[in-house]
Specification:
Layout: H1 2-9, E1 16-21, E2 24-28, H2 33-38, H3 40-55, E3 63-67, E4 77-79
Parallel strand pairs: 2-3
Antiparallel strand pairs: 1-2, 3-4
Length: about 90
């Protein structure tokens, strides 16, 4: 259900659920051009933060592993809620 919500809110970037292992959810972005080249740094950062915080709302999930081709505005890897400095 989370994948559907994210994909609806970010039509330019479509994620695919791969698996869950321990406290980590693995997602792939087969066509990462929208994320890495078209959204700019702020848009890509917003997307990564949103996906990470959304998945880590699930009980037992602490990390999100993103698999996609690295580009100018986003880097694949494992992220958690402490991965970004947020000024709230």
């Amino acid at each position: 259900m989370i994948v559907e919500i994210v994909n609806k809110n970010y039509p330019i970037v479509q994620i695919k659920y791969v698996k869950t292992s321990g406290d980590t959810v693995f997602v792939a972005i087969p066509n990462s051009m929208g994320l890495t080249q078209q959204m700019g740094s702020t848009g890509a950062n917003e997307f990564m933060v949103c996906v990470t915080f959304t998945f880590t709302e699930l009980k037992g999930i602490k990390h999100v592993s993103f698999d996609f081709e690295e580009g100018d505005h986003a880097v694949p890897g494992v992220y958690d809620r402490t991965s970004w400095s947020l000024n709230l």
